[in-house]
Amino acid sequence: MPNDVPPLKIAMVGHGFMGAAHSQGWRVAPRFFDLPARPEMALLVGRNSTGVEAAARKWGWQDTATDWRAAVDRDDIDVVDIVTPGGSHAEIAIAALEAGKHVLCEKPLANTLDEAVAMAEAAGRAGKDVFAMVGFTYRRVPAAALARDLVLSGAIGEVRQVRATYLQDWLVDSDAPLTWRLQKDLAGSGALGDLGAHAVDLAQFITGQRVTGVSGLLNTFVHERPLLGEAAGLAGTATQERGLVTVDDVSLFTSRFDGGAIGSFEATRMSTGRKNALRVEVSGSAGAVSFDLEKMNSLGFYDATAPDTRRGFTDIMVTEPAHPYLSAWWPPGHSLGYEHGFVHQAKDFVEAVMEERQPEPSFADGLQVQKVLDGVERSAAADSIWTKTI
Ligand code: SOE
């Protein structure tokens, strides 16, 4: 990284699993990409001083604080990166935007539609050189970006059907502890917001179409779980006491898109045997693309215009320098992994704010996904009535 580029000082609020992933993004992006500014990991915020100091030492943050207001109040901070549970996104993001900081906020944008509206409005009110982005990281997986390029260039013809599933199984065990992701006041919703939000964003990103209405079903199979002892990753140790699960374990919905396509979505943390299977398949009049996060270095492509003796799904290895993001990495064929999405997210964010253009997805995009989540909840509560989301 050239020495003559200016620093961009980051304060990150939160230091759980997503904190580790974002730290990796900020640290590695300037070492592989020639960025117009050097992200400086200036301040890490967490409520527990021992925990936040240990995380800062491990991940390379310069300073720590135990109150998020430190991130907003410090004049030298340029960017506030929010990786806390959804219940605190709105308060922190709005204060940061009002203080003139750029904001990167984890998904889903908020816990409720009202909070998401307030956040999008705050982003709209912020000065024209203050930017806010929501962290739908999977857009930055090269194979997902290639899928979008192919679909938008017309390679599969008219987009007709979208099949999006996000399958995990870490809640199949009824004794898995009651972490914040299972509590409505902290997480907003369950599999719907945690995983369904990614599936909706990715389906819209790849097709260039937006969901206009949904019909949904939510289900909770395990209503009570042991309270959490020591947190570790997505789970942790269980105590003897039990508490109520207040979110969905599984969410299913069908949808219409504004470009005429129709879709089916499934988001679940109860899909026995599936670990982190985000899949989006798009069928068109002239072909299809099939993305699978568990095989993230390749993209399925079917060309229906090829001679019929040669037709079949092809696995394109998305590891060539000409593929999205790949020219900065390893020699052709040398694969990437989960963390690279966060590196690409940091790169795209830094480039956009330094070039004074809106990074995508914006808070308005995050709000639109929130409307879909809200529509699914309303439809499910009314027992699968068609619910408009635009
Ligand atoms: C847990 O379900 C989780 O970590 C989500 O919270 C993330 O958003 C997703 O990327 C991976 O799974």
Describe this structure in words.
The protein is of the alpha/beta class and 390 residues long. It folds into two domains: 132 residues, NAD(P)-binding Rossmann-like Domain (Rossmann fold, 3-Layer(aba) Sandwich), CATH 3.40.50.720; 208 residues, 2-Layer Sandwich (Dihydrodipicolinate Reductase, domain 2), CATH 3.30.360.10. Helices cover 32% and strands 28% of the residues. The chain contains ten helices and 17 strands. The chain has a nine-stranded mixed beta sheet with strand order 16-15-14-13-7-12-11-8-17. A six-stranded parallel beta sheet has the order 3-2-1-4-5-6, sandwiched between helices. Strands 9-10 form a two-stranded antiparallel ribbon. β11 and β12 form a beta hairpin. α4 packs parallel to α5 and α5 packs antiparallel against α10. The radius of gyration is 21 Å and the shape is globular. The model has no long low-confidence stretch (mean pLDDT 97). The chain binds alpha-L-sorbopyranose (SOE). The site of alpha-L-sorbopyranose has 6 residues, from α8.
